[in-house]
Amino acid sequence: MGTLILGIIRTAVQVLAGAGVMNLLDTFIKPKVGPTYYPEPISPGFRFPKILWFIAAFVVGIMLLKFIGKKLNIKLLK
């Protein structure tokens, strides 16, 4: 269970780091290159409900895989 939580935390940190890089590009690069090369923001913005939905779907998926692993007696999914 600890490995699973560590994997979730590692993935979340990578996603948030990617969002931070996009925000930096929008802030510092866009004013310098002009609208022809950079017409719209790269960053989708921070949407808290969407992040919560992603985390909930991830947790439900893991629980579903564990349930299937127990019912079908698959050791890899237990």
Kindly list the characteristics that best describe this protein:
78 residues; mainly alpha; 2 domains; 3 helices; 0% strand
Description:
This protein is mainly alpha-helical and 78 residues long. The protein has two domains: 1-44; 47-78. It has helices spanning 2-28, 30-33, 48-71. The radius of gyration is 19 Å and the shape is elongated. The model has no long low-confidence stretch (mean pLDDT 77).
In summary, what is this structure?
By secondary structure, this protein is mainly alpha-helical.
Strand content: under 5%
Number of helices: 3
Mean pLDDT: 77
Number of strands: 0
Kindly give the count of domains: 2
Which stretches are poorly predicted, pLDDT < 50 over at least 5 residues? none
The 3D shape can be described as: elongated
Please describe the biggest sheet, giving its number of strands, its sense, and whether it closes into a barrel.
none
Return the string of H and E elements: HHH
Distance between the termini: 11 Å
Radius of gyration: 19 Å
Structural class: mainly alpha
Tell me the helix content: over 70%
Question: What secondary-structure arrangement, pairings included, does this model have?
Answer:
Layout: H1 2-28, H2 30-33, H3 48-71
